[in-house]
Specification:
Layout (H helix, E strand, L loop, with lengths): L10 H6 L1 H25 L4 H24 L4 H19 L2
Length: 95
């Protein structure tokens, strides 16, 4: 059974409980790792494409996070950004 990924918390919630959003990011990312490992272990036809997509997405997310930080975004906004990426991956991999 996979976890149901929820959209990231609002900035207000992150400001009140910044550790909670970070903890949720860790849990959600762990679920995506599990889903990917299952795909790789089963040797699915698109496993190679998934590995390439994973690297490209990580680089894109890091570049976007860097740009946002340089523009003055808060750490909570960066956690939200990563949670959005992770939720999209979980949804795509859960199909």
């Amino acid at each position: 059974m996979s976890l149901q990924m929820q959209p990231s918390m609002t900035a207000t919630s992150n400001a009140e409980l910044p550790w909670f959003a970070a903890a949720m990011l860790a849990i959600e990312a762990g679920e995506v790792i599990r889903l990917r490992l299952e795909k790789f272990a089963r040797g699915e036809a698109d496993a190679g494409e998934e590995a390439e997509l994973m690297v490209v997405e990580k680089i894109a997310a890091a570049l976007e996070a860097t740009a946002k930080l340089m523009a003055g975004a808060s750490p909570a906004a960066i956690v939200d950004l990563y949670r959005d990426y992770v939720a999209a991956n979980a949804e795509r991999l859960s199909v």
